[in-house]
Amino acid sequence: MLTVEGDKHIDNIFSKKLKAGKRRTYFFDIRRTKSNDYFISITESTKKFDSDGYDRHKIFVYKEDFNRFVENLQEVVDQIKTKYMPDYDYDAFAKREEEWQNSKNAGAADDHSEPNW
């Protein structure tokens, strides 16, 4: 996918989507500039309460910052997990999401009824 930001044509190379609750989604994109330089674009998209629109916030991480960015992010996550919230079940949401998906898929597989027309 080719998009334009400012004067540069930006090519999206790879993308991952992370749904985080009912209103928030994160997008992690590898992007390439016209000059064949690569960077990461992280977008938080949040559905607005009072309208049909979305608020979007972006951060760009450039190749020279990849290692330090990941190290610092991991350090602050580890601090929260070990020092500030050691008793929190960080896997609980993933478990609930997996159970919901499994029940949804099972319901779709069991639904062999005729359509209500």
Keywords:
2 helices, 117 residues, 5 strands, five-stranded antiparallel beta sheet
Give the ordered list of helices and strands.
EEEEEHH
Total helical segments: 2
Kindly report how far apart the N and C termini lie. 39 Å
Biggest sheet architecture: 5 strands, antiparallel
Can you give a write-up of this model?
The chain is of the alpha+beta class. The chain has a single domain, classed as Nuclear Transport Factor 2, Chain: A (Roll). The chain has a five-stranded antiparallel beta sheet, with no helix packed on it. The radius of gyration is 20 Å and the shape is extended.
Task: Describe this structure in a few short sentences.
This protein has a single domain (2-106), classed as Roll (Nuclear Transport Factor 2, Chain: A), CATH 3.10.450.
List the helices and strands and how they pair.
Blueprint: E1 2-5, E2 8-20, E3 24-32, E4 38-47, E5 54-62, H1 66-84, H2 92-110
Antiparallel strand pairs: 1-2, 2-3, 3-4, 4-5
